[in-house]
């Protein structure tokens, strides 16, 4: 019984870390796209992504 509880806690902890990592990656992607749009507005023709 204790082993199963420890395993469940470990699984939840791993999923929590993975979810935080996914949130960080999503925030970074949103930041990059915003930066890209800002650069495109500043210099319409010089930088093409």
Summarize it:
By secondary structure, this protein is an all-alpha fold. The protein has one helix at residues 2-42.
Task: Describe this protein with a few key phrases.
mainly alpha, about 85% helix, single chain, about 50 residues, 1 helix, rod-shaped
Please characterize this protein's 3D structure:
This protein has 49 residues and is mainly alpha-helical. Helices cover 84% and strands 0% of the residues. It is built from 1 helix and no strands. The protein has one helix at residues 2-42. The longest helix has 41 residues, at 2-42. The radius of gyration is 20 Å and the shape is rod-shaped.
List the helices and strands and how they pair.
Blueprint: H1 2-42
Separation of the first and last Cα atoms: 55 Å
Q: Rounded to an integer, what's the Rg over CA atoms?
A: 20 Å
β-strand number: 0
List low-pLDDT spans.
none
Shape: rod-shaped
Described by strand count, sense and barrel closure, the largest sheet is: none
């Amino acid at each position: 019984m204790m082993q199963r509880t420890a395993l469940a806690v470990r699984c939840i902890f791993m999923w929590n870390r993975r979810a935080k990592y996914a949130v960080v990656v999503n925030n970074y992607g949103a930041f990059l796209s915003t930066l890209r749009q800002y650069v495109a507005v500043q210099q319409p023709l010089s930088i093409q992504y």
